[in-house]
Specification:
The complex is a heterodimer of chains A (about 130) and B (about 550). By secondary structure, chain A is mainly alpha-helical. Chain A is built from five helices and two strands. In chain A, about 70% of the residues lie in helices and about 5% in strands. Chain A has a two-stranded antiparallel sheet. Chain B has a single domain, classed as Sodium/glucose cotransporter. Helix content of chain B is about 75%, strand content about 0%. In chain B, helix 4 packs across helix 14 and helix 18 (about 425-445) packs antiparallel against helix 19. The chains are: A mainly alpha (about 130), B mainly alpha (about 550). Chains A and B meet through helix 1, helix 2, helix 3, strand 2 and helix 4 of A and helix 6, helix 7, helix 11, helix 12 and helix 14 of B.
């Protein structure tokens, strides 16, 4: 309870795990998705804000009926947000979770990461319970 | 200036209304109080440990938590403020909602799951994981408390005016009484129900708010034959500025300064949301990182849908209501949504919408209070003062005492801020979160070379620069809406500090780290990275 991060039981060399190719691969997979995607949506949002602030006349050009460029661009920000959310869910389910759970199961098999402040809970039930919640 | 702050915080003006029936509004609101109290008392039976009190036992599902996040995030300002802004300023009101929504991608992609995997109750748990515990925890808790207090004060002060409109109390004493009732209810909810109770209040409120705005949106669209283009046409035809309502620029187009101000606000909204402490704490209420991910996905869906409804409602109000009547209504643009409800469904719908607005304030202040309480009791009292020698019960006791203290301070602050223009505090809260919290969160999760010195420089630098810039901005000096209208000390010309303070805080975090003389523990860094990405050793849900 004194140290939030102290692993209970289990002696694993975290530095060694960190240097293993499987973990490097997991980190690379994670970053290769989230970093470019973050850059992409931030730039797209910034472009939209700058466009709205400095080019309102272009935003006012009518596309059909009373619907203009500005409204379509604004709504497209909603659409891209929903699309990126969907892509991320697909990516984590397909690519990320399988890789991370292999490493987690291996570490948990060595007794790392059993809950420390749930001592009242039956020890050993924890890893199974974690899976059961899914 | 105050227009955009007004959108964020609701209006401080005293509102009186001659539409609707105050007693109907009160009755519907009392029903909300009774229903939520039932859930809060039920939740209290299972609140036995600190993990129950601060994190709801980590036993909410992703869907429940996502709904609660929407309930926590969509303040009365989002509803009344954005609808009103679109009704009066057209497209410029819509610009806000886009920033509010897009911001959630940062939470989804970079923050939610990694925070859930490495933290326990608070943001400080994550930030101090591999750095020096005491100084980093104190800094993180300080920034958390600042953000919560700014946000809380603005909400409480707004509550007086808003609720007074809705239940027809317009004397100063009456408003103070209303603020006291709101604050007392909040204390009861959080004290008894802890995070479980707070979460249920937020879930119920989010459901009511989204269902209510969906109903009104369908109603408005039905009146235009479900033709959105036709609705826009009627809005333009009914608005004195005509076609201008359909394009940006009515509010921000005035000058380069107003344009820069808008950009500064937009950046602060997008970068601040994922670093708001009361948002971060919600990620700990679910059993696993996968549920944290699902929470954000559900929240993005609900928040996105809600802002689409506000677009319809805003233009609907512009089309159906008299422009001058909205502005003449006490409270001005914030009255647009209630007036639209009355126009559509008479006293009953107005009562429902009024109760929803009241519930909204209550849920948001409850979320802020439990966050401030967790930060003080867990970080400052438990880890810094008691150095971790405190059991779960002791931490919960400290938390409950903090809830009462924060609640009483919020009531007094809210009464004191009555009639003051404190709406800028919400924009400031976002800017502080984006400057003081986000750089350190991202650096500690993603940059191996980050150090304690970098964290302290970034957090204190971001916090103080944001506050100092505001202190020398037109918010305080030299304009009609300022605290000191007659003294031109506004050295910083914008009303939002984000454009300067956010890059500065990122820079300070980097500079402090590369110049640090002491290296950080590589084992802790390895452990944090492995935990954050795999979820090994993450805090478990409690079982009752």
């Amino acid at each position: 309870m004194t140290n939030v991060s102290a692993p209970a039981g289990g002696t694993v060399d975290y530095v060694q795990v960190q240097q293993r190719p499987e973990f490097a691969e997991l980190r690379r997979t994670h970053r290769s998705f989230v970093f470019p995607m973050t850059a992409l949506f931030l730039l797209w949002y910034l472009a939209y804000v700058l466009f709205a602030a400095f080019q309102p006349d272009l935003m006012a050009i009518s596309v059909f009926g009373n619907v203009n460029v500005g409204l379509l661009l604004g709504l497209s920000q909603f659409v891209t947000t929903f699309i990126i959310t969907g892509l991320y869910v697909w990516f984590t389910n397909k690519r990320l979770d399988p890789k991370s759970s292999v490493i987690r199961h291996e570490l948990e098999a060595k007794g790392v990461g059993l809950p420390q402040d749930t001592a009242q809970a039956p020890a050993g039930a924890a890893p199974a319970a974690k899976e059961a919640t899914r | 200036m105050s227009t955009h702050a007004t959108i964020l915080a609701g209006d401080q003006e005293t509102l009186t209304t001659d539409v609707g029936n105050p007693w109907a509004n009160i009755a519907i609101f009392l029903m909300f109080v009774v229903v939520t109290l039932f859930f809060v008392i039920r939740a209290s039976r299972n609140t036995k440990t600190a993990a129950d009190f601060y994190a709801g036992g980590r036993s909410f599902s992703g869907g429940q938590n996502g709904t609660a996040i929407a309930g926590d995030y969509l303040s009365a300002a989002s509803f009344l403020g954005v609808v009103g802004a679109i009704a009066i300023y057209g497209y410029d009101g819509f610009l806000y909602s886009i920033g509010f929504l897009v911001a959630w991608l940062i939470a989804l992609l970079l923050v939610a799951e990694l925070m859930r995997n490495t933290g326990k109750f608070t943001m400080a748990d994550v930030l101090s994981f591999r750095l020096k515990q005491r100084p980093v925890r104190i800094a993180a808790a300080t920034s958390t408390l600042f953000v919560c207090v700014f946000y809380l004060l603005a909400q409480m002060a707004g509550a007086g005016g808003l609720v007074s409109l809705l239940i027809g109390v317009d004397s100063r004493v009456g408003q103070a009484l209303v603020i006291t009732v709101v604050g007392a209810l909040m204390i009861v909810y959080v004290f008894i129900g802890g995070m479980k109770g707070t979460t249920w209040v937020q879930i119920i409120k989010a459901t009511l708010l989204i269902a209510g705005s969906l109903l009104m949106s369908v109603w408005v669209l039905a009146l235009s034959g479900f033709n959105f283009s036709e609705l826009l046409g009627s809005a333009a035809a009914n608005h004195p500025d005509g076609e201008a309502v359909l394009a940006p620029g009515m509010q921000y187009g005035a000058s380069l300064l107003t344009q820069l101000d808008f950009i500064s606000l937009g950046v602060a909204l997008v970068l601040g949301t994922a670093a708001l402490p009361h948002v971060l704490i919600r990620f700990y209420t679910v059993p696993t990182a996968r549920d944290a991910r699902k929470s954000v996905v559900v929240a993005i869906g609900l928040i996105g849908a809600f802002y689409l409804f506000t677009l319809v409602l805003g233009y609907g109000a512009a089309a159906l209501l008299d422009h001058d009547a909205i502005l003449a209504a006490p409270g001005g643009q914030n009255a647009a949504a209630p007036l639209l409800a009355y126009e559509l469904g008479g006293t009953l719908l107005l009562g429902v919408i009024a109760a929803v607005a009241f519930a909204t304030i209550l849920a948001v202040v409850a979320g802020l209070t439990i966050t401030a309480s967790a930060s003080f009791a867990h970080d400052i009292w438990g880890q810094v003062i008691k150095k971790g020698n405190i059991d779960s019960q002791g931490e919960m006791r400290a938390g409950k005492i903090t809830v009462v203290v924060v609640g009483v301070l919020a009531i007094l602050g809210g009464i004191g801020a009555q009639g003051q223009n404190v709406a800028f505090l919400v924009a400031l809260a976002f800017a502080v979160a984006a400057s003081a919290n986000l750089p350190t969160i991202l650096y500690s999760l993603f940059w191996r070379g980050f150090t304690t010195r970098g964290a302290l420089w970034s957090m204190y630098g971001g916090l103080s620069s944001a506050i100092v810039l505001i202190a020398f901005s037109p918010v305080v000096w030299g304009r009609d809406t300022s605290f000191f209208p007659n003294i031109a000390l506004d050295i910083y010309p914008l009303t939002n500090p984000g454009l300067i303070s956010i890059p500065l805080a990122f820079f300070l975090g980097w500079l402090g780290s590369v110049t640090a003389k002491t290296a950080e523990d590589p084992v802790k860094q390895a452990e944090m990275e492995i935990r954050s990405l795999t979820g090994v050793g993450a805090e478990e849900p409690t079982r009752h």
